[in-house]
Amino acid sequence: MIEPILLSIRIAAIATLFSGVIGTVLAYSLNKKDSFIKDFLEVLIILPMILPPSVTGYLLLILIGKRGPVGAFLLENFDYSIVFTWIAAVLAAAIVSLPLMYQNAKAAFQGVDEDYIKIARTLGASERRIFFTITLPLAKAGLISGIVLTFARSAGEFGATLMVAGNIPGKTQTIPTAIYFANQRGDNATANILVGIMVAFSFVLIFTLNRWTKKREDRL
After folding, report:
1. Alpha carbon distance 156, 150 (integer Å)
2. From CA 79, how far away is CA 73, in angstroms rounded?
3. Crossing angle of the two packed helices 2-31 and 188-219, in degrees rounded to 10
4. In sequence order, which residues have a C-beta less than 8 Å from that of residue 9 and are 6 or more positions away?
5. Which listed residue, 25, 54, 67, 120, has the most CB atoms within 10 A of its CB?
6. 185/191 Cα distance (integer angstroms)
7. For residues 168 and 202, what is the distance between their CA atoms, to the nearest angstrom?
8. Spatial distance between the Cα atoms of 84 and 167, rounded to a whole number of angstroms
9. pLDDT in tens, 11-44
């Protein structure tokens, strides 16, 4: 029973790393733009949050499957298949959780007071320095919230993961897939324990985030 828990944590951590970096970069890059291309890209980024996870998983399977453009390339050139590996589970979790990170990062950057940035520019600060010394610190709370929610969403991902990674014990079996198949075979004891762990973990994570956010607001 411990293997799905440890694997879920590892997959969620790696997926959060990717979604955190990509979501933050995209949110910052698109924040100041207003064009058709920006709107189009935002729809693509947010789409996995709207689509059923099974649809996202199916589209990902088309991309990385043995006959897909990415899957076929890897198979022909490196004799490697991503499907039904933990890497596929990471990709699924990262894609499904990216919209959460992007939306939180976007709101965080939009909440930064432009006056501070304008003053820094008049003093000759470079855009790089402005980002790391002004924008990033002021947006920190929103970015941390995005990272926490992204981690929780990644750990709970099921539909897309099942499509591309399956349910191989010790290899791709995460907590959500373990719960589903335990219930299917009538092993309610295992399912109940895993459900309890998942609910408790998610509750503590969100509760801690809310308390931290409230304390931070009280200090400001």
Report:
1. 10
2. 9
3. 40
4. 155
5. 120
6. 10
7. 24
8. 8
9. 999 999 999 999 999 999 998 777 888 889 999 9
